[in-house]
Automatic annotation (TrEMBL):
Stated name of the protein: Uncharacterized protein
Listed Pfam families: NfeD (PF01957), NfeD_membrane (PF24961)
Residue span, NfeD integral membrane domain: 2-77
Domain of life: Bacteria
Residue intervals passing through the bilayer: 6-24, 31-51, 57-80
Location of the region described as Disordered in the Swiss-Prot/TrEMBL record: 199-219
Cited Gene3D superfamilies: Nucleic acid-binding proteins (2.40.50.140)
Gene source species: Fuerstiella marisgermanici
Organism taxonomic ancestry: Bacteria, Pseudomonadati, Planctomycetota, Planctomycetia, Planctomycetales
Domain spans labelled NfeD-like C-terminal: 110-164
InterPro entries with a match to the protein in the record: Membrane_assoc_protease, NA-bd_OB-fold, NfeD-like_C, NfeD_membrane
Bilayer disposition of the protein: Multi-pass membrane protein
Subcellular location per the Swiss-Prot or TrEMBL entry: Membrane
Gene Ontology CC entries for this record: plasma membrane
Length: 219
């Protein structure tokens, strides 16, 4: 069996380690209970080892015991809040940006509406696009867009651009469609013109018949 002083030192280190681990690992309080047991047994072992024979060692141990607990708790909280280790252990929401920064970013994204760019990754529907030589998060609702496909910004959703596939020939097809619509109206116009022409021919025949002053003999 180890000496009481050695046991007190080992259990103090183990208890403080378990106390820090309790803040980082969800255990429903089990690690915290083990930490409390280790610290209490360590204090009892230190009292048995040094109280009557070496008071200086005992009070040094007591200082480490009393100062170690808040120091470990503070150090663990600092690691959780300010290091990448804490980002992996704790699920945090996005950090709130200032209102002015959000408004400026929103205005900058809205200024891109109507611009043409290119998909830098597969949009499924979210991904990355390039507009004016800058990369942006974007999404294409309703369909997947292959990387390298020309896109056009049609809106803004939060901090993302809403894009759709851009067809460079769309402007060329528009006049053609207009021509097609005109051609649909042409048959009606042609019908009206044909009726007018028929009426005109009929009127001319009546006038010609009325101008004859003799009867045409019948066979």
């Amino acid at each position: 069996m180890p000496d009481a002083g050695v046991l007190a030192t080992i259990l103090l280190i183990v208890g403080l380690f378990l106390l820090a681990l309790e803040l980082m690992v969800p255990s429903f309080g089990m690690i915290g209970i083990l930490s409390a047991i280790a610290l209490l047994v360590s204090a009892w072992s230190a009292w048995q080892a040094w109280w009557g024979t070496s008071p200086g060692f005992f009070w040094t141990y007591a200082a480490f015991w009393l100062l170690g607990i808040p120091s470990v708790l503070g150090g663990a909280l600092f690691l959780l809040q300010n290091t990448s280790l804490g980002d992996r252990l704790v699920l945090r929401g996005p950090r709130a940006a200032s209102k002015s920064t959000s408004v400026q970013e929103q205005n900058r994204l809205e200024a891109l509406i109507g611009r043409v760019g290119e998909a830098q990754s597969l949009l499924t529907p979210g991904g990355m696009v390039t507009v004016d030589h800058e990369r942006y998060h974007a999404e294409s609702p309703g369909m997947m867009v292959e990387s390298g496909t020309p896109i056009k910004v049609v809106g803004v959703k939060g901090n993302r651009l809403v894009v759709k596939v851009h067809d460079p020939n769309q402007a060329v097809k528009a006049p053609a469609s207009a021509k097609g619509s005109d051609s649909k109206a042409d048959p009606l116009a042609d019908t009206i013109a044909a009726v007018d022409l028929t009426d005109a021919v009929t009127d001319d025949d009546e006038d010609t018949s009325a101008s004859l002053d003799f009867d045409i003999p019948e066979d």
